[in-house]
């Protein structure tokens, strides 16, 4: 998983890439010679900062606004990427929304639907729009950003955990269907990787989590980005339908 440039002709679409893990993934892919479409929904300044960082390092990227849970917006997004950069044959489904903890008796179905929209609906919409180009090229890399919570089953978090677990189902079914076309589909499941959304978290909460992790530390965004870059690379050509945990051993299997 070195930063050696590997794919001078590949184009990646990374959703939710204006900050956090998405930004790290976009920067990591660009460092390997991949042209990156940096998707954002609201944070234009953040997306443009990611593009500027990539350009300063000699990479190629452009920012594209779209709500990836909206069918019409996704169709326009992919058209715009194709027009400006070319057809994306690498898709990283990273976009997410609010992730509240809610006691079961206080949950509403809308809490589940909100997570399903980001982790099942959005990947489905994006996949349908990028698939024709992947099939024409006989090449595709689809990487879902899952979560260890699908295995851990965190309390008061069933709406989120269930939707993230659903992403693994998509991963394995799509891998079976699309493999004959030269398209691989995998999932990276991070542990708790502190990013901007976690600012203000009590140090005691971080300490409690860290103590459970076999490597006894928190992960870093670039470590998730490295796993994604590997799955996007030629080195992963015989890997599909897999879940790779990036969590210091907090889950096994």
Which key features would you list for this structure?
8 helices; 253 residues; seven-stranded parallel sheet; single chain; disordered N terminus
Sheet with the most strands, sense and barrel status: 7 strands, parallel
CATH superfamily: NAD(P)-binding Rossmann-like Domain
Topology, number of strands: 7
Strand order of the largest sheet: 3-2-1-4-5-6-7
CATH topology: Rossmann fold
- pLDDT < 50 stretches: 1-8
How many DSSP helices? Answer: 8
Task: Please identify the top-level CATH class.
Answer: Alpha Beta
Structural class: alpha/beta
Helix share bin? 40-55%
Beta-strand content:
5-15%
CATH architecture: 3-Layer(aba) Sandwich
Mean pLDDT metric: 95
**What's the helix-strand series?**
EHEHEHEHEHHEHHE
Shape: globular
Count of separate structural domains: 1
Radius of gyration: 17 Å
Structure write-up:
The chain has 8 helices and 7 strands, in the order βαβαβαβαβααβααβ. The N terminus is likely disordered. Helices cover 45% and strands 15% of the residues. Helix 4 links the parallel strand 4 and strand 5. The protein has a 7-stranded parallel beta sheet, sandwiched between helices.
């Amino acid at each position: 998983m070195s930063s050696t440039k590997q794919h001078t002709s590949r184009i990646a679409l990374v959703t939710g890439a204006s900050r956090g893990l998405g930004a790290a993934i976009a920067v990591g892919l660009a460092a390997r010679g991949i042209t990156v479409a940096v998707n954002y929904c609201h944070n234009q300044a953040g997306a443009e900062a990611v593009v500027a960082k990539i350009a300063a390092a000699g990479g190629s990227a452009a920012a594209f606004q779209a709500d990836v849970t909206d069918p019409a917006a996704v169709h326009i997004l992919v058209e715009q990427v194709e027009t400006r950069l070319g057809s994306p044959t690498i898709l990283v489904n990273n976009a997410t929304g609010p992730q509240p903890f809610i006691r079961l008796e206080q949950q509403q179905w809308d809490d589940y639907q909100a997570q399903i929209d980001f982790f099942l609906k959005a990947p489905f919409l994006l996949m349908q729009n990028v698939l024709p180009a992947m099939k024409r090229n006989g090449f595709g890399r689809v990487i879902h950003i899952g979560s260890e919570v699908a295995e851990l089953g965190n309390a008061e978090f069933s709406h989120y955990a269930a939707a993230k677990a659903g992403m693994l189902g998509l991963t394995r079914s799509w891998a079976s269907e699309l493999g004959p076309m030269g398209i691989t589909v995998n999932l990276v499941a991070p542990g708790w990787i502190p990013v901007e959304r976690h600012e203000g978290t009590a140090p005691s909460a971080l300490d409690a989590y860290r103590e459970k992790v076999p490597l006894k530390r928190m992960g870093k965004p670039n470590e998730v980005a490295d796993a994604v870059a590997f799955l996007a690379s030629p080195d992963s050509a015989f890997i599909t339908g897999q879940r790779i945990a990036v969590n210091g051993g907090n889950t096994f299997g």
